[in-house]
Amino acid sequence: MDASKQTSAALLDRANAPIAQLLRRFENIIALAPISTPSLTPTAVETYQMEVETAALVRAAEDILALTRALKEAWLFGRLDTLGTGAVLGAEESARGVVAGLRALAGEGNG
Question: CB of 67 within 8 A of CB of 14?
């Protein structure tokens, strides 16, 4: 993954498009489900449209799976920056304050 695409906002944006496409394709398939005429021509057209929508639905699911795989790889190799640098620096400052407080308490207990 590119370093600029590893923030939580960018990852959410990247996930929203395939999810929306997945829902849209499913809605299209459901809309085609009722058979209105017993004629063969409209039925053949609806069958073809359902096949196209199903293929697009599978592709959207594959895109989501590829995204989850990329997220797992980024998480395992430590390249996933969901907290941002400001949150990490704030946590480090808090940790330094806790360490200083513990050292002060340890110094008071020894003396």
Answer: yes
